[in-house]
């Protein structure tokens, strides 16, 4: 076997979604590390990933990429960090936020609450109804949006207005959409490993188009594997790397 790294998504791949990984999985990954290099690539931040994979997550795996690699650790050492603020700069960021708030102010929907833009390290989350609406208001907005295309229209306007900013818009969930720079999906982490390995395997559960594993699964730089859950991940890895 040449120099091989195996990268794993977290939710639905190493653990049940939003849950902690089980002891048998943690032990299995240590077995696997005797044969290949093991890396983790999750969309959540480091704190959340450590809650799921254990407090020793930075050192228990050869590479740990949180926020898809915006925060990159190798053997417990911080390799690099990236952020939306650093990438876009304050002027572009402000122009985008100002315009988006103006558009939200003018959109006609049954109710509006608060927190229309949530600023995160690697993305903006934009919600026309506002993130601090109640569950009932959330359900009502989702229904209204399906009929009137509120999010779709707003995304189109922003795409046109900021065509030169190099942004990806991802509509998901009930009330919002995410905005982040092109390429800040899980393929972002590949820059830290592509020069050092002959084969890069990737395991993920949402490898279909529109899923958060799609880009890295489809990347010509990786050998992609779809898993149905932690048990299946272990089974496939045993067959591929331990037999
Ligand atoms: Mg997943």
Automatic annotation (TrEMBL):
Record SUPFAM superfamilies: HAD-like
Annotated organism of origin: Chloropicon primus
Residues involved in alpha-D-mannose 1-phosphate binding: 18, 120, 131, 138, 176, 178
Keyword Isomerase belongs to the record: yes
UniProt-listed PANTHER family: PHOSPHOMANNOMUTASE (PTHR10466)
Cofactor: Mg(2+)
GO molecular function terms listed in the Swiss-Prot or TrEMBL record: metal ion binding; phosphomannomutase activity
GO biological process, one term: protein N-linked glycosylation
Active site: 9, 11
InterPro entries, per the entry: HAD-like_sf, HAD-SF_hydro_IIB, HAD_sf, PMM, PMM_cap
Subcellular location(s) of the protein: Cytoplasm
UniProt entry tagged with the keyword Metal-binding: yes
Sequence positions that bind Mg(2+): 9, 11, 205, 217, 222
Functional note: Catalyzes the interconversion of mannose-6-phosphate to mannose-1-phosphate, the precursor for the synthesis of GDP-mannose. GDP-mannose is an essential sugar nucleotide for the synthesis of D-mannose-containing cell wall polysaccharides (galactomannans and glucomannans), glycolipids, glycoproteins and the antioxidant L-ascorbate.
Reactions listed under catalytic activity: alpha-D-mannose 1-phosphate = D-mannose 6-phosphate
Organism classification: Eukaryota, Viridiplantae, Chlorophyta, Chloropicophyceae, Chloropicales
Name of the protein this chain belongs to: Phosphomannomutase
Major localization class: cytoplasm
GO cellular component: cytosol
Pathway named in the protein's UniProt entry: Nucleotide-sugar biosynthesis; GDP-alpha-D-mannose biosynthesis; alpha-D-mannose 1-phosphate from D-fructose 6-phosphate: step 2/2
Similarity remark: Belongs to the eukaryotic PMM family.
Protein keywords: Cytoplasm, Isomerase, Magnesium, Metal-binding
